[in-house]
Amino acid sequence: MRPIILGICAAFFFAFTFVLNRAMELEGGSWIWSASLRFILMVPLLMIIVWARGNVGQVFREIKKAPLDWLKWSIIGFGFFYAPLCFAAAYGPGWLIAGTWQVTIISGSLLAPFFYETVQTKAGPVHIRGKIPYKGLLMSLIILAGVVLMQAEHAAQLSLHEMVLCVVPVLFASFAYPLGNRQMMEICKGRLDAYQRVLGMTLASLPFWLILSLYGLATAGPPSGRQVLQSGLVAVFSGICATILFFAATDLVKGDMRRLAAVEATQSFEVLFAAAGEIAILSSPLPGAISWAGITLVVIGMMLNSYVSNKKTTFKSEGVKA
């Protein structure tokens, strides 16, 4: 249950992204600065945290071993994840982005065949190609159905153009985030903890954010002081607190694609937290009856997903090949 609890806590802090990004957009801030400032501001904060833990040097040694892999997968996992989310905030409310983002529940499960998982057999640990966790995927579809219900009564208010520009970037991001995260877990192989891995990926993705910042400076001008402050809050709550909690949860279940999919499914709670945040901060209307039905489905789906993912599975050594 610990990975699930950590995942839910991460979802709470991740929800600040959707609420604050939408608030910055409504105040006239550019999505480019909303995206790049978060990661640029994360660097000194993470450096202080990891330095205080006494293991900064190990991060740089790991990056030095495979700099191109770190650059590639960090840009995919952080750059191609967060920039599209901020772009989408320019065309749709936070609740729609948070709702669409839950596709990552299914995206993460569909990526399983591209990775190997460790299986304990009588002959010892062996590595086999991951399989799509169909039972967990079914539970994830229940969660997704709940999310669709929550958003159904609101989506009718948006134009097709707004829906496309809001939804498609988020769908792209939903595959980029778990892909980058899992690839970096494979590269690190447990040598770095969650704090170190987040710092390493943030540093490795900096070229992407600096180039994006130069583009923002040329097209939108410098950010306002208020946008810098709000981006700083996103950096602390979502970039550090949420990401470290989520990475810690995925580290606990690495090598087990079924439980990993369950941890990723906890991010469905972002919808609930984002909806509550928009009501409190942006004065959004209370959910209607259909939305409450969706919330119920999300909770039920989470409970079933947690149950399915924690069922013990036995393997016969004769039937497993390396």
TrEMBL record:
Name of the molecule in the record: Multidrug resistance efflux transporter family protein
Annotated TM spans: 31-52, 73-91, 97-116, 136-152, 158-177, 198-217, 229-249, 261-283, 289-308
A Pfam entry, by short name: EmrE
Keyword Ligase: no
Species this protein is from: Bacillus swezeyi
Source domain of life: Bacteria
Keyword Transmembrane: yes
Keyword vocabulary terms for this entry: Membrane, Transmembrane, Transmembrane helix
InterPro entries: EmrE (IPR032713)
